[in-house]
Each structure stands twice: as C-alpha cells, then as structure tokens.
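WARN retry 2 of 3 for item q-0093 after timeout on previous attempt; input resubmitted unchanged.
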Amino acid sequence: MENMFSTETKDGKHGRKWLMNLLETEVVEIEFTKKDGTPRVMKCTLQEDFLPEVDGVILIDKDRWKKDALAVFDIEKNDWRSFRWDSVKSIKFTLGD
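OK item q-0093 returned
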C-alpha cells in the first residue's frame, strides 16, 4: 500500500495539507514507525487549546512545517514530537462529540 503522505505520490502534498488541517481542529491518533524502526502510536494535535503558553502567548514549534516531517503536540507526553510523513501507518480521529 502506498503512503498517501509520501512526497513520491501525486496526492502526497494534498494528504499532508488535509492532515495538518485536521490536526488544527481535532486530536488525532497517528500510528507510525520511528526512525529506529519501532512502532509508535501518538495522540496529538495542533489545536491551540492544547498548545503550551508563556505569558499568554501560544508556543508553536517553528520547525513543524518540514517537507519530510511534521511536529505536533503529543497530548500524552505534553510536549512537542514529530513523525516523518513516509512513516505513517494509520490515522484515527473522531469528529465532534
């Protein structure tokens, strides 16, 4: 199965934009393979309500828009983490309540 986020696929760019838009409104469970080859499941988001603040300013990881990877806020680790687009195995999310 071809990864819909791969830079090698015709729709890779559209898939990445779709996921980034989804992350801005939802908590998403992403299953991916880490660089060392181990599997990882992460509950993450880019929703402002979850992002850390300092003096009322929301802190956003400025490196999150990389071509090969995306930084997201891991709600279980309460910190920024990233995954490579070509390592994504599955995405789970619930819309609304």
